[in-house]
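Re: that chain you flagged

S.,

Sorry for the slow reply, it's been a week of failed gels. I finally had a moment to sit down with the sequence you sent. For the record, here it is as I used it:
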Amino acid sequence: MQETLILSIGGSLIVPNGGINVDFLTKLNVFVRRNVSKNRRLFLVAGGGTTARHYIDGGKKVIKKITNDDLDWLGIHSSRLNAHLLRTIFRDLAHPRITENYDHRILNLREPVMIGAGWKPGWSTDYCAVMFAKNYNANLVINLSNLYWIYDKDPNVYHGAKVIEKTTWDFYQTLVGDKWTPGLSAPIDPIAAALSKELKLTVITTKGDDFRNLQRIVDGESFKGTVIRPFDVSSAFYDRQYYLGEKGEYRYVGGINKAKEILFKLANWYRALYIKLQFNPKTLLDVGCGTGELVHNLRLLGVDARGVELSPDALAMARDNVKPFLSQGDAEKLPFKNNSFEMVISIDVLEHLERSKLQKVVNETVRVAKKAVLHKIFTQENVLLDFFHSDDPSHVSVFSQGFWERLFINTKNVAVARKFFRLPSYLESVYLLKKND
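Prediction finished late last night. Pasting the structure tokens below so you have them in one place:
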């Protein structure tokens, strides 16, 4: 499955007051062509921006008062003009038709680029971008505007406006309300925000003409921009309740029912045997080890296994005989020297991290590994596994295998192994990285 990224491009980036922004479009052209591949496709939605405002202002000067529907239609047609410009630029990559009706999904889409424009009155093209995400199974929309951040007040009016780096849809809705008016100036319009909340979608807003920063977002590195998520998931989320299985998923012992406890134990024994029989490492580090059950099983099999875990609650729940082999630490800065362990693993950890932390954490696992790194990750392809999961709000980075493949290929000092035993992707996604000599 390809990763699908939605870029909602503010019309003022395409056509500012001075005319068509050729410099921006040239850089966008390079960015898109660099990032589309067999593992990734890009959907671009063009806003009406300054073009729409010129038409609206012109109409108001002539007849003084324009209906909301006509105001919206002026914006919609302006966005369609901008979209056709994008369609012209990406003619060799894009689907031949610009999407103007989001009730319909194109089946068997082959082109790596799709262009979208305004749909109908009642919302901005932000809503169209969210509909793209809904129709094509994307879980990230990147909103490109003239600012890096969302503020608690209009920064053009209030000198003391504060930057919001991370927030939830509940809080964001208190800023923008719940009603759409034509020409509303908001980072994400209220109707799009409501749908994003319903879909549990993540939206990142950032400055659209900083393509280096945009590349960092796409690559899973740290970036400048506001992240709006469906839930507030911080380190405090991973408390005793989570590790008892009371906040979603089936993963941990002692929780919701006996069947989940048995399933957890069987899964941990399968993983321990899998690692022992296929790789037989002498020393191993389990990053994000939770309550240390996998470390316990591996030690019973003769592996000198250690674990590192962020949550003190999880460590407190560990067996007494395994606690000496567990330590508290952050995956972003592992408390170990280079090449400390023959093998480093993470099991169902990376999907719990924010996109901006992924490359850094992967780099850390590579740094402390001597020979190999193994990551098991919950991905969009794990449909059978997903069937047995309850909702887990902490799954903030559930992407396609295409995303992870690209991230690992771009990781320094390792090669992605192709030939090793693993279960089918509808059950799990496992990646083996071998350290370069």
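What I noticed first: Residues 68-89 form the longest helix (22 residues).

Talk soon,
D.
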